[in-house]
Amino acid sequence: MKLICTPTYGPLAIIVDIASGGIVREIAIPQELQSVRNRPYGITTDNKGHWYISNWDKIGCFDANFNLQYAINGLPENIHQIQYDDLSGELWVVATSADSLFAINLEKQIARRFSPVLDRWQELDAPRNDTQHFSSLRWHGGNLYVLAHKFGVEPSCLTIYNRDMVRLGQWNIGREAHSICEYNGQIFILDSRGGAILGNRGVNIAVGGMPVNEPELPGHSAGSALLAHYMPPEKPTYTRGMTITPQGFAAVAIFDFGSIETRSTGDAYLRIFDVRKGERVKEVKLSGVGNIQDIQLYEQPLVQVPTELEFYDPVVKKLKDLQPAILTKRLNDPEIRIPYDADRTAPDFAYTLSTFTNVSIDFAVRNNLHRIIKDIEKPAENILNQLLQGNWERSGGFWYPAASGWMDWHSNYESPGPRIYLVWCAEGGKSRFLYSPDGGRTMVEKWEPAGWSVNAFMIGNERHPFWHAVDSGGTDRISFGFKPKSYLHQFMVA
Q1: Which H or E run includes 260?
Q2: Are 395 and 462 contacting, i.e. CB atoms less than 8 angstroms apart?
Q3: Where are the beta strands (DSSP E) in 289-359?
Q4: What DSSP state is assigned to residue 354?
Q5: Structural domains of the chain, ranges and CATH numbers in brackets
Q6: How far is the C-alpha of 33 from the C-alpha of 437, rounded, in Å?
Q7: Helix, strand and coil percent figures for the chain, each rounded to 5
Q8: Is the dihedral angle over the CA atoms 259, 262, 264, 267 positive or is it negative?
């Protein structure tokens, strides 16, 4: 896994390989982005592969190889987090020094300015001040989340707006908070002064912190669990910059807060936490970078998956024994979560692809098949783990009956990563695995042979979905799916 980070000392950004623990690339500050003060901060990417990185009062647009395409000038000083919004096509900017958000339409070169203090749009040249110290924003689920850092012991505030910029509510949480992340439907922020990852469903993971004298923090009762992460650490540390991968691993930047010198030019650390378990799994030292302002996922590690059927022969031998019992309904899931009706006809897959790709669909909305009892493939799963030297688990087992068995389009975007499906068909040239390699613009049909075959593919996230479907086409089709429990097994430490 590689992360892109903005340091306070040296280059505009650095790319860190968590597996090796080193900086693999430095992106210098182009002349066009040089400012009265070089303070890189926000990082985001659009749906065309461009990267956007802010530096004080400017934002640079880069291609995939970080060649500067153009610079956005004339912004307020001390830009913090930025995010490209796919739906509006705007680059949203936290203008900290102006208590404002700027929405920049990149194609029309038009900017709008919104004041979270006044809850209204305002003129671009309206008076500017920094009373709330807005630090972060994130579009998620059709709503905009905006984080006000506040100052000192006063709790930070997370405010929620809808698409019409109508305030829906707010949440007082943490102190001097930064970064807004989403994982599995939850919203997380980084409590910078307290040193914790806090989630809106009660998640509280200690990552470091500052010593405090007050016995009770505003908004928290004495003796509450939330106070646990405020216990004085060995030395004062500060956390700023966080991202959470689709698999639920949070990368957090932490640095020594002991002196002005070490804050700006000293060492920083990237700590990796399993959000689901609340455990630290890795730490990487970044020497001489000062502190880290923002972190984004640059590249997921790829798990190499063989596509030759012969490789899976030991697994297939175990699965062959299950085939007769499945076809006689002895291994069907007793819970009829997926009702099957032999008279239910398959859809027009080309048409439904064009309709489904406009919305986010994780699991198939429509299907007609039998689910296989969970975990009956356990011996095969164990063998697969030996073959691939990984940590693989069952992804799904299905019987598509000859009489109208099918599964409509879906993307599984909430669980991205590689998949292996070992497939058995009673007859060849009838069943087909359907997929779109380009996000829904075209449809590919993979016709399957009689007997056993393998479908191996990579599931993308919500921004880059891998749409796929299945049509039994008049033959019995059985599939056994497997996925890795985590990409992180490649570099997890004891």
Answers
A1: helix 260-265
A2: no
A3: 292-299
A4: H
A5: 2-299 (2.120.10.30), 309-490 (2.60.120.10)
A6: 36
A7: 10, 45, 45
A8: negative
User: Residue 13: what residue type?
Assistant: A
Residue 49 structure tokens: 């592969």
Residue with tokens 């968590």: 18
* pLDDT tens by residue, 429-478: 999 999 998 888 899 999 999 999 999 998 887 777 899 999 999 999 99
CA–CA gap between residue 234 and residue 21 (Å, rounded): 24
- Where residue 335 falls (left for φ over 0; alpha for ψ -120 to 50; beta otherwise) is beta
**Burial class (CB within 10 angstroms; exposed 0-12, middle 13-18, buried 19+) of 213:** exposed
Q: Classify residue 172 as exposed, middle or buried by CB count within 10 Å of its CB (0-12, 13-18, 19+).
A: middle
Mean pLDDT of the chain: 87
In sign, the C-alpha dihedral spanning 291, 138, 83, 272 is: positive
The contacts found for 18-26 with CB under 8 angstroms, 24 or more apart, are: 18/251, 18/270, 18/272, 18/282, 18/284, 18/491, 19/301, 19/490, 19/491, 21/284, 21/285, 22/284, 23/286
Helices 313-320 and 378-388: crossing angle, nearest 10°? 180
Q: Residue 373 belongs to what H/E stretch? A: none
Q: Rounded to whole angstroms, how far apart are CA atoms 266 and 236? A: 14
Determine contact, residues 163/225, Cβ cutoff 8 Å: no
Please tell me the pTM assigned to this model.
Answer: 0.69
3-class secondary-structure state, position 448: coil
